[in-house]
Design goal:
The protein has 705 residues and is of the alpha/beta class. Helices cover 33% and strands 22% of the residues. It is built from 15 helices and 34 strands. The strands form four sheets. The chain has a ten-stranded parallel β-sheet. Strand 7, helix 11 and strand 8 form a beta-alpha-beta unit. Helix 3 runs antiparallel to helix 7, helix 4 runs antiparallel to helix 6 and helix 8 packs antiparallel against helix 9. It is globular, with a radius of gyration of 37 Å.
Length: 705
Amino acid sequence: MEQEFPDTVTVPTATPAEVESSVKADNGVSGVSHQQVEEGEALLQHEEENEEEEGEEEEEEEEEDDSDDDDTNDGDDSGTDNFNTEKRGTQLQKNERTAGATSTLPHMFQTDQLLFYERFKAYQDYMLGDCKPSEVKAFIADYLDKVLEPCDWLALWSTDVFDVVVEVQDLDVKELKACVRLVLPLQCETRGCELTEDAFVSLLEATQHKVALQQLHVVYDESGDFDQTALAIEHLRFFYKHIWRQWDEEDEDDDFDYFVRCVEPRLRLHYDILEDRVPAGLVSEYQSLLGNCSQCFQKFSVLRSSLSHDSDSELDNVSMVEGLKLYDQLEAFKRKLHIIENPLLRYVLAYKGNVRPQCMQSRGPRESGMKVVHVVTASCSGVQLQSLFNAKLIPLCFSEDTEIQFHREPVSAVESCHKGDVVIVLPGIYSVSSSIFITDSITIEGFGFPDEVVIEKKRKGDSFVESTGADVRLTNIKFIQHDAIEGILCVRQGMVNMENCVLQCETTGVIVRTSARLTMNMCDLYGSKGAGVEIYPGSVCSLVGNGIHHCKDGILIKDFANEMDVMPSITLENNVIHNNEGYGVILVKPNCGEPCHAPVDRGEEDPVPSTEDNREAEVKDSASSSVRSTATVSGLAALQPQYADTNMASCSTSRKWQFTRQLSRNKEASCSRAVHDLKDHQVFVSIQGNQFKRNGMGDFGTFLY
């Protein structure tokens, strides 16, 4: 009889002890009872459960460690995590040489391409904190003492004449110097001369082997041990090259936060210039002011050191008078620099240096007396062409001294124009990469509605459309601006008549320069990050029936009172100025000794006059206030906290920065009060029928300086 086996055989598991017992049983030594087998299986199952729990706990701990490491790496955004001892290799890039360049020198750390926020965080959190100008050097020395590796690291000693590899042996952070020795064999490159090893040895002996830290560039190392050293020296070098001024610690008012007043605005200006956010003319003016201020400070310092405190000689008296003159010049330069460095003051005041360097000359009429109608189109249908002939070309070309030229884009058409020419732009979207310069009296009109005729600027530049023509006309065109720094339309001189146009801004709006004239009718302007319309002294501006909205400020009027400045002449009728972030209309004007209070317009229910105490309360409670209040520097700082310190006090001037504003309780009252206040200013020739709605900080404000 055959024996049947089951399909599935279950083999009981056993512990090593049970296996040993079974082996002994097979040898006739002992056997395993059923109770012992069950106890062994239970013990094995308990051990397996413990092992699984321990494994899960270890995995959770590893995940927590990984997340902690990630958080640490995220926080180390500028290499200023000074006390991070767990290094996993360098986080910095190698400074690659340009293609085709050959050099025997080792690679350096690439640290000169840090972002704005990286430098901002390093200076604010680690290097300077809230120090005063007189404490800057002490704070920097303390920072370097904590961050720099004390010795045994290689660096490139770089000057205008040579680059040579040295080894740092010691540091003197108070003097911002390092004690170095030459690395042999000699690794160097020279410019315009030949230097031997003996020459370098003699040079180091003459300087007691001490080299300025700003002249050292840390040699690249993959271990990551010298990342913080490389970054710290870069922060130091950048600070003394672009931020620090020789006269900073000479300020009599030393009780202020140096980072807030000086470092932050100068750092922002530096990156604004790098990113082409500041007009070229203003950059040139700023650099010129820096040079003049530095020379004036040097002369003043030399003269001051030569004076004797106890001498009453005539020579010393003459020198003292000359010193006072130099001091006044120095303070004037410093004030101008501060205006350009501070973003808010640069926006409302800095215009003198903002002049285009290149000259725009008029072509005048053609010698032949011929006039040209320029037609701009990439392609058009027969119906469009027939309509164009009937509506425009036949009336314009009725005489023999007129011809027609066709262009594919508007820039070439405008560049081909002479006085009296007409440019007709057919419907389409025309992308241009360069600015449009209008130097003659011409007419540019779109053949259709503004939304159908679109000219869009793609690349950066000082302005989009720039006009110096005596009589320029723009109609039925939509301009879209992306990266123009100075304005979507800048009227430098002459006159521009603009009608039924749409201006979509992304940076700045329409600018009317001194002695220029602008007539803007039935246009729509929006999106400017500055003022929608910026009006300069001595200009004539007529705004009728326009919509100006969703800008930083609606209209910015600059009414300076210098000897050479004339008040602007403005006509403001039937405009709708609404939904601007700041003011509907803001007027910049000198204080001229006016009292620091403003007239208060209260209703009959609140006849109590405003006092100095309740005026401060009104500034704080501006959301529900309907009165005009005056805020000094502190009030302005509350409006712009990132530019909090704008104190411009000096011994040679008694002016104070003030800011008056009116906030509306409701729409109807807002319109009546704003118009009443505007009529008080002589800059307005006519003002009627305007509507002010939902402007964030009020309908009308005055910036007093």
